[in-house]
Automatic annotation (TrEMBL), chain A:
Pfam families (alphabetical): Oxidored_q2
UniProt keyword list: Cell membrane, Membrane, Transmembrane, Transmembrane helix
Keyword S-adenosyl-L-methionine (UniProt): no
Species name: Halopseudomonas salina
Entry-linked InterPro entries: CPA3_antiporter_subunitC, NUOK/Mnh_C1-like
Upper taxonomic lineage: Bacteria, Pseudomonadati, Pseudomonadota, Gammaproteobacteria, Pseudomonadales
Compartments reported by the entry: Cell membrane
Disordered: annotated span: 100-133
Name of the protein: Cation:proton antiporter
Membrane topology term: Multi-pass membrane protein
Automatic annotation (TrEMBL), chain B:
Keywords in alphabetical order: Cell membrane, Membrane, Transmembrane, Transmembrane helix
Protein name, per record: Cation:proton antiporter
Taxonomic source organism: Halopseudomonas salina
Family: Belongs to the CPA3 antiporters (TC 2.A.63) subunit D family.
Membrane topology: Multi-pass membrane protein
Domain NADH:quinone oxidoreductase/Mrp antiporter transmembrane, chain residue ranges per copy: 128-417
Location (main, coarse): membrane
Automatic annotation (TrEMBL), chain C:
Gene: mrpA
Keywords assigned by UniProt, alphabetized: Antiport, Cell membrane, Ion transport, Membrane, Transmembrane, Transmembrane helix, Transport
Organism: Halopseudomonas salina
Protein name per the record: Na(+)/H(+) antiporter subunit A
Chain ranges passing through the membrane: 24-41, 76-95, 107-124, 130-147, 159-183, 195-215, 236-254, 266-287, 294-312, 318-342, 354-373, 399-424, 444-465, 485-512, 563-581, 593-612, 619-639, 645-663, 684-703, 744-764, 808-830, 842-869, 881-899
Record flagged with keyword Transport: yes
Topological relation to the membrane, as annotated: Multi-pass membrane protein
Sequence ranges assigned to domain MrpA C-terminal/MbhE in this UniProt record: 685-758
Cellular localization per UniProt: Cell membrane; Membrane
Keyword Transmembrane helix (UniProt): yes
Domain Na+/H+ antiporter MnhB subunit-related protein: 779-896
């Protein structure tokens, strides 16, 4: 079963990377989510799928054949972190889309290589964004 | 000790949550945030004093012994990194004071910087691989938030590049942490060190660690994985890019130093690879800088080049070389952040950060000229400033080790650094401003900004003139890195 | 000694202030300190001449054996006197020369700091401290050359000088480090020639040190910066670029001559390059019309000869070296200052425009005359003795020396001619054409040159005095053994005297046929100088082009290319490691059995991901991504990870909701793929290689049994020590609570940051309403109870989480889902209706709970996050539960915050 997990994780990673190489930014951001899922699966797999029961221990019970709880805890943490970062990425995507329109991925990233604007222009950005709580 | 060791994480964290609760009152947020930064700095300095005395702090979170619970360790390197984080954190916050930006923008900056500081400090003091991952995530989201802050087409474009590439790095780290656990059954760095030092690590453990080193290399912006840095740093708001320039890549360098010294105290194949990577990083970074025509772009490429020096010290692996790397870290963080700050003031006065559109600063503000010259010369390794000692030690260590090529690259890079710095000097200071009427129309920036650059320049000069004690500290830190007593003893109290 | 350095340095720092306070007298005031230093050094002459050596030392970086050790021996004293003496004159002179310059204050500062550095350089006994001062002189020189900073030639010249001397300086640093290693000491005074020369590093040391010295002292082929440095104001040229700084390289050569010299290589290099430089300088000098450039090239010629003289290592040679050094400093300083005065007075430095000035500027004229005679080596000037000894020194060497002598005769003949041109053409003959009315310059401006010129005359005429007090000890310091020093003007008819006569004769001839000599020199010289500068410009341009190409490799601005390259490098390094280690990923031990639900989950996850990767259209994208997540959740259930599965499920739900809301505003997403087939193949290759690497890595990791007892320990201790049955939850809130603390911090910051972006540019809140898609009345009616149920469920999940699947994360996510539904349906106003507390406050409170739970431990003097439990009414309550509440609140508040801003924006 671990091998199946490993292969699934590998294939999903490949798909995630493929998406992150896409010309449409939306798919790039989704690729982050797919790659994240793949890596989570990978971490869980590396910790083995031992045990035949979930990791619960109750008073009075003897030794049980429980799953390894540590990788689960790690992955749980990683999932939530991944979700938080994904939402942030989504918000960047949304704002990027509003500002850049329907440019493709490289069209957006190329803007960083344009010459720096003059000082006042930079402040203009500051004004236009309204920090909200 | 139990309290002291968590303070570096706790102070920014509590500052953040207090500031969050009073977020509607901008003055309070600023006051709380500054107080927090001052406390963090004081804690860092106190930690340095303790560490200099040879005390190593370590604690088990929740009281759960290693390797089950999470261990924190503060040795000399960690202590000085926390202190420097405090310095740069406070400097950035002071620089932000009264900047002509919307109040909400400044408030958010304060919040996110505190988050970032918590992540950075966490990364410096943890002795647990997965916990390190978590702190990396904290500082990553803090940096995402900061780099995108303020919006704007150009900034978001850079933020997107930064985000996607750093997400890749962080996911690799997660996988690596999982693999290391899967192959060694532990997440504790001390236990990992014991395993590797006893040469009992399996192939899986090696591969996991290699993947981890690769992901650190992305964070540290090593050749050939540094592409994200010059594509994004120059678009952030000036104080933000200064903070990043000073601290962020250095967390990657710290992680590299920590892991490599723990696992392989003796030079080996990893060191050989790192040596060549370091040389390539130095030279490619400095060449890239030579081609730039904007202040922050030049400086960004120099970050890459300078990281090469630190990794060079790590790769040489002699006590002196490691001390050089530590010295370089200390010196570089201050100098590099300061250059970005000065660049920001220069851009404010001249109205641009494109060299072609700058000029006239030398005649107009001699003070700024001095404040630029100090970190710039230090960066180029001109004595008696801090950078000279850092470079000198590394060159000496390379020559002592008989690795001439490293010394050659280190010195050669020095000449080019000088070239880049004199390029900024020539274009933005010496040259007359192309439109003299525009000079200074936007003011000179708030006093806080000037205080920041002044104090940082003084630190640079002091490190240079007082190189004796700093070098002693670095040397002791290097010995501690190699012997790693605190880490190796983490498991002594293991419950059977 | 240290006091003198400090005094001059402080003097330099105060210079701008002094200038601002008393601009007119600043020069005179600031000259007091160097003058006092000169006096002090002069007072040490007798002691040093008696063989005494003064030491001062204090520690700097003990760990590296770097101590500021200052040592005053004959050589150092000689230089110190020149530096402080000429320096005093120069400071006074600059006050007059630049009296109307707005940045004169800065100029004084640079000049004095340079003086300090130069003094430090010659006094330092520590190799590294010497280097510190060495570099400082380069920097000061840079600042002074670029003093007229708005002129681009000045900037170019300054940069050129900085790069050449700075680059050479770094070579020198490497050389010094090696020297220190080989000699096992960092003190000049403890270097042992035997030890160093027998060391394997000796050739490298020699080459590196020579590069350093040659760049600093403008030896061929590094000479080109010096003439360009004449863009600096004249006092700088007089002081740095003829009398002192350029002699730093010469000084170091002399200083290291006892250690490194003596061998064949050292002499050969020094004599060959020195002679070549000398001849080149002379040829280039004669063809100039600009007085200053002419002087610059004669300086190059003299520096070459000095280098050569050190190389001879004969007793006459070394005496000649010291004599020539002193003589040159005197006359060249005088000439430069006088030329500055002429320039100042007439507004030109072109010989063709000058003439007949003697009547107008007699004092300057006398100074130039005396200096020029010394320059030409006429008796009884100091320059004459120097020249005699030079020839004698060379001839001592035998055949090689004789041939070099011939070159030197030619060189010196040219210098004689140049001296003649400078003096006679300027001050006699036809009256020149100049603008304005030339007049004698102010006393400070003629006193300096005159003093130096008369000094040069006096030292030569009464040569007993310098011999006894200065030359002797200086020569001893530069020689490896004892040298018998005796100076004389007339030693009978020796070959040297004959050579001198020949020189003078040739020189006179050259002077009278100056035009044809010039024409010839021009033809020869154009090759050199012109190509030298041209090569410099060209190579700098090439360099920048190359740098541009390198930068272009990393600055293409294509995110996809960055991504592809980084992924590829990661895959290659991992797979390379795998191959090199000969790892066996397929050697697995018994692994767990394949389960059908697991397999289905995997296939679903893969299929969904593939759908998202390839299909076009927004709906398909969202749906397939959701399916992929569901598949994964199913898989998690199958491997007994219910908590992970639940979390995955909740996260996936929220992801889909968020995605749908963001995608509403975007136009359709096209199917994946690129314009070209090659691009498709390249990306697919990169992706597949990465996938392969991930798979093999995991397989290798699981190819051996899992070591360690972490799993067993957690299972065994969860209930007795953590009071919880759900081991995963106990790990999250107790055993590894710090991870979770970091994690909620990530969530909190992400929420704050995302909402800043999502809410950017938002208009003030209008009428609260939900998304139009959720406009149905039925839906709206059904939503409220559903949300309420979800909220209750979430609290239950939170509560039971310690023992059953659930916990703060899952609870928070469930509650947030409920609220999300409400907000989506009714608009963001509903949130305010349901709760008076703003989401960021909830986040803050959540973080406060989590941190607060940890603080109990600190309060009780134990570790952070240590759990404390009480049992009121038979219910186990503890700080880990408080922590879990914090997690719940943070996650809930965060998601709420994001949703609210997302909705507000889209509505």
């Amino acid at each position: 079963m671990e091998w199946i997990g490993a292969i699934t994780a590998g294939l999903m990673s490949a798909l995630g990377v493929w998406m992150m190489l896409d010309r449409h930014l939306m798919r790039v951001v989704l690729g982050i989510a797919v790659l994240g899922n793949a890596i989570n699966l990978g971490v869980l797999t590396a910790g083995r799928y031992s045990g035949s029961e979930a990791a619960f221990t109750f008073a009075g019970e003897g030794a049980l054949d429980a799953a390894n709880p540590l990788p689960q805890a790690l992955v749980l943490t990683a999932i939530v972190i991944g979700f938080a970062l994904f939402v942030f990425a989504l918000s960047v995507l949304k704002r990027t889309h509003e500002l850049h329109g329907d440019k493709d991925t490289d069209g957006v990233s190329q803007v960083t290589e344009e010459p720096a604007p003059d000082e006042d222009a930079e402040q203009g950005h500051g004004q236009s964004q309204g920090g909200r709580e | 000790m139990n309290t002291l060791i968590v303070l570096p994480i706790l102070i920014p964290l509590v500052t953040l949550l207090l500031a969050l609760l009073v977020r509607r009152h901008h003055a309070w947020v600023t006051a709380i945030s500054l107080t927090g930064a001052v406390l963090l700095l004081l804690t860092g300095l106190y930690l340095v004093v303790i560490a200099a005395g040879g005390t190593v702090l370590s604690a088990q979170m929740g009281g759960w012994g290693a390797p089950y619970g999470i261990s924190l360790v503060i040795d000399r390197l960690s202590a000085v990194m926390v202190a420097i984080t405090g310095v740069i954190g406070l400097a950035t916050l002071v620089y932000c004071l009264r900047q002509p930006m919307p109040a909400d923008f400044l408030r958010d900056t304060h919040l996110f910087i505190q988050g970032l500081l918590a992540g950075i400090c966490g990364a410096f003091i943890t002795a647990d691989v997965f916990n390190l991952y978590v702190w990396f995530e904290v500082l990553l989201i803090g940096s995402f938030a900061l780099i995108a802050l303020g919006g704007g087409e150009r900034r978001l474009s850079g933020a997107m590049t930064y985000l996607v590439l750093n997400m890749l790095a962080t996911l690799l780290f997660l996988l690596a942490a999982g693999l290391v656990y899967g192959a060694t059954g532990t997440l504790n760095m001390g236990e990992l060190a014991l395993l590797f030092r006893a040469e009992q690590a399996s192939d899986g453990a090696w591969l996991g660690v290699i993947l981890m080193l690769v992901s650190f290399s992305i964070k540290a912006a090593l050749f050939p994985l540094f592409g994200w840095l010059p594509a994004s740093y120059h678009v952030a708001w000036t104080p933000v890019s200064a903070l990043f320039a000073g601290l962020l890549t250095k967390v990657g360098v710290y992680a590299l130093i920590r892991l490599v010294t723990l696992l392989w105290p003796e030079p080996g194949v990893i060191h050989t690879v790192l040596l060549w990577v370091a040389c390539a990083t130095m030279i490619i970074g400095v060449l890239g800088a030579a081609a730039q025509t904007e202040v922050r772009r030049i400086l960004s490429f120099h970050i890459v080049s300078q990281v090469g020096y630190m990794v060079l010290g790590l790769a040489l692996a002699t006590p002196l070389a490691l001390a050089g790397a530590v010295f370089y870290l200390i010196h570089h963080i201050v100098v590099k952040a300061n250059l970005f700050f000065v660049g920001g003031i220069a851009a404010r006065i001249t109205g641009s950060e494109r060299l072609a559109a700058m000029g006239g600063l030398y005649a107009r503000t001699p003070l700024l000229a001095i404040l630029f010259a100090i970190p710039a010369l230090s960066l180029a390794g001109i004595p008696p400033l801090s950078g000279f000692w850092a470079k000198f030690v590394l060159v000496k260590a390379s020559l002592d080790a008989g690795i001439w090529v490293a010394a050659f690259f280190a010195l050669f890079t020095g000449v080019f650094t000088l070239l880049s710095m004199s390029k900024i000097w020539n274009e933005s200071f010496l040259k007359a401003h192309p439109q003299p009427a525009m000079l200074g129309v936007t003011g000179q920036g708030p006093a806080g900004a000037w205080i920041t650059v002044g104090v940082l320049a003084m630190i640079t000069v002091s490190i240079g003139l007082g190189a004796g004690p700093v070098m002693e500290y670095a040397m002791a830190a290097s010995a501690q890195l190699i012997e790693a007593p605190a880490y190796l003893q983490l498991l002594d109290g293991r419950r059977e | 000694m240290l006091a003198s350095l400090l005094a001059i340095f402080i003097n330099g720092l105060c210079a701008p202030l002094v200038y601002r306070a008393v601009p007119r007298y600043a020069g005179l005031l600031l000259a007091l300190v160097p003058a006092a230093c000169f006096a002090w050094f002069a007072s040490q002459i007798s002691a040093v001449a008696g063989g005494e050596i003064l030491f001062e030392s204090f520690a700097w970086v003990p760990l590296l054996d770097v101590a500021v050790t200052l040592r005053l021996d004959g050589l150092a004293l000689l230089f110190a006197l020149l530096i402080s003496g000429i320096g005093t004159l120069i400071v006074m002179y600059s006050g007059a020369y630049l009296h109307d310059h707005p940045q004169l204050g800065r100029f004084y500062a640079y000049l004095l700091i340079f003086m300090m550095a130069m003094l430090g350089l010659v006094l330092a006994d520590n190799l590294i401290v010497m280097f510190v001062f060495w570099e400082l002189t380069s920097i000061a020189s840079y600042l002074l050359i670029s003093f007229n900073h708005e002129k681009s030639e000045s900037r170019r010249a300054a940069l050129q000088a900085l790069l050449i001397t700075g680059g050479g300086g770094l070579a020198l640093l490497a050389g010094l480090v090696l020297l220190g290693t080989a000699a096992e000491t960092w003190q000049f005074s403890q270097l042992q020639a035997g030890l160093v020369q027998a060391h394997g590093l000796f050739p490298a040391i020699m080459v590196l040190v020579l590069i350093g010295c040659f760049t600093k002292s403008a030896q061929f082929p590094f000479h080109l910066w010096l003439p360009n440095a004449m863009n600096a104001p004249t006092p700088v040229s007089a002081y740095l670029h003829s009398a002192t700084m350029v002699k730093a390289g010469i000084y170091l050569l002399a200083r290291l001559n006892p250690t490194l010299g003596g061998g064949f290589g050292w002499s050969t290099v020094l004599i060959t390059l020195g002679a070549l430089t000398a001849l080149l300088g002379a040829v280039l000098a004669i063809r100039q019309y600009d007085l200053k450039r002419m002087l610059a090239f004669t300086t190059v010629a003299v520096l070459g000869q000095l280098t050569m003289l050190i190389g001879t290592n004969t007793s006459y040679g070394l005496q000649a070296f010291v004599l020539y050094l002193v003589a040159h400093s005197f006359y060249k300083g005088a000439l430069f200052m006088a030329v500055g005065a002429i320039d100042h007075s007439t507004g030109t430095r072109d010989i063709r425009k000058l003439g007949g000035l003697f009547a107008l500027m007699p004092l300057t004229g006398i100074a130039v005359g005396l200096a020029a005679f010394s320059n030409a080596g006429l008796p009884p000037f100091f320059g004459f003795i120097a020249k005699e000894f030079k020839y004698a020194g060379l001839m001592e060497m035998g055949a090689v020396g004789w041939s070099v002598t011939l070159v030197m005769i030619l060189t010196n003949a040219l210098l004689v001619a140049a001296a003649g041109l400078i003096f006679f053409k300027t001050f006699f003959g036809q009256r020149g054409h100049w603008e304005g009315q030339p007049h004698e310059v102010s006393p400070v401006m003629w006193a300096g040159p005159l003093l130096l010129a008369v000094g040069g005359f006096g030292l030569g005429a009464w040569n007993q005095w310098p011999e006894t007090w200065l030359v002797n000890t200086a020569v001893q310091a530069a020689a490896s053994g004892e040298v018998d020093v005796s100076l004389y003007l007339w030693g009978g008819i020796t070959p040297a005297v004959l050579a001198s006569v020949l020189t003078l004769g040739l020189g006179t001839m050259f002077y009278f046929r100056a035009d044809s000599v010039r024409a010839l020199a021009r033809r020869l010289g154009s090759v050199w100088e012109f190509s030298g500068d041209l090569v410099w410009d060209k190579s700098l341009k090439r360099l920048f082009q190359f740098a541009g190409a390198v930068a272009g490799l990393f600055q293409h601005g294509s995110l996809r290319l960055h991504m592809a390259l980084m992924t590829l490098i990661v895959s290659i390094s991992v797979l390379g490691g795998l191959l090199l280690m000969k790892a066996q990923p397929f050697d697995g031990p018994a692994l767990s059995a394949v389960s059908l639900p697991g397999l289905i989950g995997c296939l679903l996850a893969l299929g969904g991901a593939a759908g998202a990767a390839f299909m076009g259209g927004r709906l398909a994208l969202v749906a397939s991504l959701g399916a992929s997540g569901l598949g994964l959740a199913l898989f998690f259930v199958s491997i007994n990870a219910p908590d992970v599965a639940l979390t995955q499920l909740m996260v996936e739900t929220l992801t889909v909701v968020f995605l749908a809301m963001v995608l509403r505003r975007m136009r359709g997403v096209p199917a994946s793929g690129n314009n070209t087939r090659a691009m498709n193949i390249w990306h697919a290759g990169v992706a597949m290689l990465f996938g392969l690497a991930v798979t093999l890595l995991i397989m290798t990791a699981v190819s051996q049994p899992l070591p360690g007892d972490l799993a067993d320990w957690f299972l065994a201790n969860s209930l007795p020590a953590g009071y919880g049955s759900n081991v995963v939850n106990v790990i999250l809130v107790d055993f590894r609570a710090v991870d979770t603390l970091g994690e909620i911090l990530v969530v909190a910051i992400a929420a704050l940051a995302a909402s800043t972006l999502l809410g950017a540019g938002q208009l003030p809140e209008g009428k609260p309403r939900g998304l139009p898609e959720f406009g149905s009345l039925m839906l709206r009616q059904g939503m409220r109870p559903l949300a309420t149920i979800l909220l209750v469920v979430s609290l239950a999940i939170l509560w039971r989480g310690h023992n059953l699947p659930g916990g703060g994360f899952i609870g928070g996510l469930v509650a947030a889902t409920g609220f999300t539904l409400l907000v989506v349906t009714f608009g963001r106003g509903i949130q305010r209706g349901l709760s008076r507390i703003a989401p960021p406050t909830i986040i803050g409170l959540g973080l406060a709970c989590a941190v607060g739970a940890g603080l109990f431990g600190l309060g009780a003097q134990v570790a952070f996050m240590t759990g404390f439990w009480i049992e009121p009414f038979g219910v186990k309550l503890g700080t880990p539960l408080l922590f879990d509440v914090g997690v719940f609140l943070t996650v809930f508040g965060s998601v709420m915050h994001m949703v609210r801003n997302l909705i507000g924006r889209t509505a």
